[in-house]
Specification:
single chain; mainly alpha
Length: 583
């Protein structure tokens, strides 16, 4: 019992470490786009945001499935004491990752002119070639991360993720200043910015190799130490430092052959060793698990790739490629803030997957319906408040972050992708928890096709605003498909008043307060970036407070849910009751 509790505690701690590292690395990756535009300008920003989704697709193809598979296979062999099997898994994964990485690097570097021609902009060639070397490092890092995750050691992955992202951003900013100071062209400056990906990838791999060196040294010391209880050379009790697999000798009568070694899970150890040593069999088994995971992971970056292959060509007028890149940069101004909302939604949504899976296993239909209703309400309110707030404050936020108000109208349209994006995230997590793994990916693929069709239809007429409207429609379609399947399987029929009318009333109350604040700020504050900063921060605080109060007043958020918030919940309840907003 104590061992089970210790294992559960270790898993929770590992999940917390990994989640915190993922949030921090995503935050760095999102916010780095602001200095990128400030230093390089909209042309550099457009080139970077056109190339990066393609780079992300190649990284996803090389790394999405195998780390998960490596962690699964290593965990199974670790539980059964198969040290040779663990090493065989890592060797196979490393070989495959190396081949994919080299192939991706060659494709991206030497195929840069062809890719740029397909996209329709020759200014992309230096950026594509600068990002290519990262593919030599990132896949190998991914295989090592999967190995340590299989041992339930999440610290190496967390440290390497944060180190990789921090170095990437630092190198990007240094090279931006360097090439800008030399008077480089937009293409050269964007190439320097993307070169940070290669340096960051190399640092991430170096961190994992250092952890592997320490781990390998510890394994050699433990294998050299005599078996049994006692202190190991590292000062640990060897029986507690490494799990000791139990081998049960199954007694058979002489008529049925020799005794067979079984692991404590009842799996023949000899069969596992035979499978571990079979390279072709191991590779086939790993690919059967990795390919579906990889294809599912491609769905989300595919939406960004649609813009990569359609916007530059659709926006080019009279062959002015650089102007098209500047327009793509303006279009991408609002996307980092929307990504912060979806990042928050992604980080919170993973909490529902194991909970839903457990309830589904127990057959707790009422609990499933209750959790689905709660999750949908919270994520819909968060997404709606974020979209409405960003759209209302698009002007001052645009000036605050990017120095001028260019493309404020498009910024406001892009903001409205946060609400359906949050719904896509949570509905996908809930469906995965119920066992519907492929459906969310298929729905996102359909949304990507819709985005491409609407880009072709709207961009020639409306420019980058048409691309933003196409994005809203694509995410809304994916959210609607996910939601329809989820509600049908759970047997839920939400009321129109609770799902739309009351949230809309809360959004209108927030809009009235924010617009009044903007009128006062525009009349009192002098124009400039500092005034935009003050107006944006005050608008965010006021809008969030009014929306929350209106949601509580409309009984969209109950006292029990508010009281469950750590630390601030009870204080917030007392304040709302004093203001007579909550009974």
């Amino acid at each position: 019992m104590r061992e089970d509790k210790s294992t559960a505690s270790g898993l929770l701690k590992g999940a917390a470490v990994l989640s915190l590292a993922a949030i921090l690395s995503k935050l760095l990756g999102t916010l780095q786009k602001i200095p990128l535009q400030n230093i390089g300008g909209d042309g550099v920003f457009g080139i970077y945001n056109t190339v990066y989704p393609f780079y992300t697709i190649l990284i996803t193809l090389a790394t999405a499935g195998f780390p998960t598979v490596v962690s699964k296979f290593v965990a199974e062999r670790h539980a059964m004491g198969e040290e040779s099997g663990k090493r065989a898994v890592l060797r196979m994964a490393t070989a495959v990752m190396a081949i994919l990485g080299v192939a991706g690097c060659i494709l991206m570097y030497f195929g840069a002119p062809l890719l740029a021609a397909w996209i329709g902009n020759s200014h992309l060639i230096p950026a594509l070639r600068s990002a290519a070397p990262a593919l030599l490092f990132v896949p190998l890092t991914a295989s090592l991360r999967g190995y340590f995750q299989g041992l339930q050691n999440m610290v190496p992955t967390a440290v390497s993720q944060v180190s990789e992202q921090a170095v990437r951003v630092a190198v990007m900013i240094i090279l931006l200043f360097y090439f800008t100071g030399l008077g480089g062209t937009e293409a050269v400056i964007a190439g320097g910015a993307l070169a940070g990906s290669a340096v960051g990838g190399a640092v991430g791999l170096l961190v994992m190799l250092l952890y592997w060196r320490g781990h390998h040294k510890q394994m050699r010391q433990d294998s050299a130490w005599p078996s049994g209880r006692g202190a190991s050379p590292a000062g640990q009790d060897r029986s507690e430092a490494l799990p000791q697999p139990q081998v049960i000798i199954k007694s058979n009568t002489p008529n049925f052959g020799p005794a067979e070694e079984l692991t404590d899970q009842g799996i023949p150890a000899a069969g596992l060793r035979k499978n571990s040593e079979s390279g072709r069999g191991l590779l086939g088994e790993m690919l059967r698990y990795a390919i579906p995971i990889c294809l599912a992971s491609l769905a989300i970056p595919l939406l960004s790739l649609v813009d990569t292959f359609t916007l530059p060509r659709l926006l080019s007028r009279g062959g002015d490629e650089l102007r098209a890149m500047a327009e793509v940069g303006v279009y991408n101004r609002g996307i980092p803030l929307v990504q912060l909302v979806t990042m928050l939604a992604s980080s919170l949504s993973v909490l529902f997957i194991p909970l839903m899976a457990e309830m589904n296993l127990r057959g707790d239909r009422e609990g499933i319906r209750r959790q689905i209703g709660l999750a949908l309400r919270w994520f819909w309110l968060i997404g709606l408040a974020a979209s409405a707030g960003l759209a209302l404050l698009a002007g001052p936020i645009n000036v605050m972050l990017y120095e001028d108000g260019t493309g404020t109208g498009t910024f406001a349209w892009v903001a409205w992708t946060a609400a359906p994006g949050a719904l896509v995230t949570i509905t996908a997590a809930l469906l995965q928890g119920l066992g519907f793994v492929r459906a969310p990916a298929v729905h996102l693929l359909a949304a990507a096709a819709l985005k491409a069709a609407l880009n072709v239809l709207l961009v020639p007429q409306l420019g980058i605003t048409g691309a933003a409207i196409a994005g809203i429609a694509a995410y809304a379609a994916a959210a609607a498909l996910n939601l329809a399947l989820l509600l049908r399987r759970a047997g839920l029929r939400p009321r129109l008043r609770d799902a739309l009318l009351r949230p809309a009333a809360a959004a209108l109350a927030m809009a009235a307060a924010v617009l009044l604040l903007r009128l006062v700020a525009d009349a009192v504050l002098p124009p400039g970036r500092l005034a935009a900063l003050a107006e944006s921060l005050l608008g965010v605080l006021l809008g969030a407070a009014v929306f929350a109060a209106a949601a509580v007043r409309a009984r969209l958020i109950g006292a029990a849910e508010l009281g469950a918030l750590p630390r601030v919940g009870p204080k917030l309840l007392r304040l709302l009751r004093k203001l007579r907003l909550l009974r």
